[in-house]
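This section describes the prediction task in plain terms. A model, or a person checking by hand, is given the sequence of a single protein chain and must write out its three-dimensional structure as a string of tokens. No templates, partner chains or ligands are provided. The sample shown here is typical of the held-out split.
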Amino acid sequence: MPTRVLFICAALVTASSPLAGAEPSARGLADDKAVAAFYQPDEVQSVHLIIADKDLNRMLAALPELVDVPASFRWRDVTVENVSVRFKGNSSSNPKQAHKRSFLIKFDKADKDRRFFGLRQVSFDNGVQFGSLFSEPIVTDILRDHGITTHRCNYAKLYVNKEYRGVYVNVERIDESFLANHLPDARGALFKVDEGGPGCNLQFLGDDPKLYLKTFAAKTKTAQKEPARLVEFIKLINKTEPKEFAKTLESKMEVDDFLRVTAVMLFSGAFDQLTGWNPHNYFLYHDGKNDRWRYMPWDLDVGFCETAFDKIRVHADWHAAWPVPRTGAPNPLLERIVADPVLLERYRKEARKILDKSFEPERLCMVISVESEDISALKRKTP
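The expected answer:
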């Protein structure tokens, strides 16, 4: 039985035991130990927010604008006062939506030096689209299982003003804390593509960095200082001579990681990415110590989707051997990889390994089925 399924089963047994209410202390834990516990895959977290009624009403009245308000945050026996909280994501910004809303908590909003065991932010995603709650945990598990650096996540029961709001996905944020905890260069340049925009498909628009500013949000000081470095990388993707492309790309990018990510996104039906139909929800990270770029997917709650929005035929129009979606937007990076026989063969070898290990139908269906049943059981056991 896959690891995450065992973890969730164990967590449910614990949750139903007489000692389930006795949470271990988090005081005195080193930052790395505490964060590992916070994202421990075999533990369902309980998180408590206290938000003044007037501020909660202000959050709702401002929709679709997402406004920050002060709050108190508690996990186990650790409380952080005067944090900033807001709703997050498209599904939560709609004033008329009836589902629970996602939350983003910022510890450093009022005080730039404040941290929660070294973390600047945490988020709790509602998981109401397509793959529901289990998509992001399963997909990130698979990515890590194939050696890809990605964000951690588990499940959390969220309480607001002592009112139970439901089971959420507790998702590690990709920010400066993430770089320090997981990547070679903690001061590397980090760019986020959130809603798309000019150049979001890595198409070269010209040498002026201003052409890309609306699309690639600089998330670190280095990224703010060096937007030209991003333009150089995009130009490399588009303008390198075909016979030099594989060698040049290899010298500047973690290519095998990108090929593995492409395969995992395709097999899991995670279409809402650069590698799929909508080129957004991703980060580009530049390791300044080694002068190498890394692609990191984000917002993976839309996996395991066959047809999206009644028009995107995810499975029918996405061929595992030719990973450029047939009906998607132009995709210079993937198109050049497919056009290069050496890179295409490397992709297919990686995709075959991933398919055999993680997406064998009977095994994967069992993982999804058990996880779905266990989440339902967790909801039933919670007040």
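For orientation: Residues 319 and 325 are 7 Å apart (CA to CA).
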